[in-house]
Amino acid sequence: MPEAHDQILTVAQMQAAEQTLIDAGTDVHALMRIAGSGAAEWIWRMAAGRSVTVLCGPGNNGGDGYVIAQRLAERRLAVRVVAPIDPKTDAAKRARKEFGGEVSSSGKDVSGEILVDCLFGSGLTRSLSAELELMLRDLAQRHPFRIAVDCPSGVESDSGKLLNEGLPQYDLTLALGAWKSAHWRMPSRAKMGQLRLVPIGVQSVGGAALAAVRPLLSAPAADSHKYRRGLLAIIGGEMAGAAMLSAQSAMRAGAGYVKLFSEHSHPDAPAGLVVDDAALNDALSDERINALLVGPGLGRGEQSRKRLAAALETDCAKVLDADALHLLDSDALADCNASRILVTPHEGELVQLCKAFGVIGDDKLGRAQSLANITGLTVLAKGSDTILCAPSEPPTFFPAAPSWLSVAGTGDVLAGIAASRMANGSDPAQAAEEAVWIHGEAARLCGPPFTADDQAAQVSTAFARFL
Predict the structure, then answer these.
(1) Is the pTM of this model over 0.70?
(2) Residues with Cβ < 8 Å from 106, sequence gap 6 or more?
(3) What's 298's DSSP letter?
(4) Please, what are the domains in the chain?
(5) Which of 164, 413, 429, 446 would bridge with 450, disulfide CB 3.0–4.6 Å?
(6) 114-137 b/e with 16+ CB inside 10 Å = b?
(7) pLDDT of 58-100, one tens digit each?
């Protein structure tokens, strides 16, 4: 089971986890006080003496808000509470009574330094009413620093959808008890600012999605040599540049030996890169090959299809990316050991793969999970909210990487890193996780803005951050 602080729960899983605590003897009000007090500690630090407005809704998220207001008032912070709807749950009613301070039913003319949004939490599934949406938006405009408690109001927790247009931008979101999917998925994540977790005692939940844990890499063993560290072969194709980007990043990501199988001349190739222009079947006969990367710059013509088929027939670990994902189908995969293959599609390529394999999914997560389960492939669905899905395993979500990554060629860099990690001995899921972290760190090291060439050059420095 995952560590409790690494798990990402659905609304149903969170409700069940809270019920487990209640069944063990902790009542709802006690949980509310734990959650509200923990959130208040963060808000106190952020406030640094500034005035706070707490917007409370009718449910238990609103109850958390009353606890927060009480705790801040006890520390003599200037606090105002706005509650457009009276509490509906027993715990929230009790929390409001214990707060004991003045509560305004209108947000009109209310202003301050910090707004704390406790209007609705993670259970919301329908859009805010026009009146509540307007109140939230107006209060947000009159408070320069905004904090959401659990989830911003107007966000669907399980999908990350925005249920209303024009929702405020938050500076900080405090997840109560456990991470929720919306904290990691777009478009909701873009609204949340910094993320912090407030523990309330929730235990590990079987089958829960995971937040990716920072990897711990290691130096080669004392008796290592280039083949022991892994030979990676990259299969080039019609466009030489993409494969070269992958090769440059792969050479810096741990593999001991990187070869590029290409019919093109590469006068600017790094001196340490071996370019092999032999017939592909002959080149692939080298039994020392530990992993293959196919797709960057491959092309989509008949010759490219043959090169992909030759790669799939080779008995080793593989990363398929870019053009290879447009050529892959059930016939091509029929005689392969899919458990040794990582695919790295962006959203358009993921849709293409799903069409090729007859996979149906409502969204990015559903498509990636279904594709992994049906095909046996490990799927790294990359993008602004990257998700890793391995067959019959819960999904893994990753922290946000710099948005400057949205430039041509960075996917080729990611594929090269992942393939290098596989050549070095990591299984597909582990290689994908390591690659995403190294890729994001390389982007941060570049600073804004940068090119894919810049990023590839930073991979070895990024790698060192995880040793």
Answers:
(1) yes
(2) 82, 84, 135
(3) -
(4) 4-206 (3.40.50.10260), 226-464 (3.40.1190.20)
(5) 446
(6) bbbbbbbbbbbeeebeeebbebbb
(7) 999 999 999 999 999 999 999 999 999 999 999 999 999 999 9
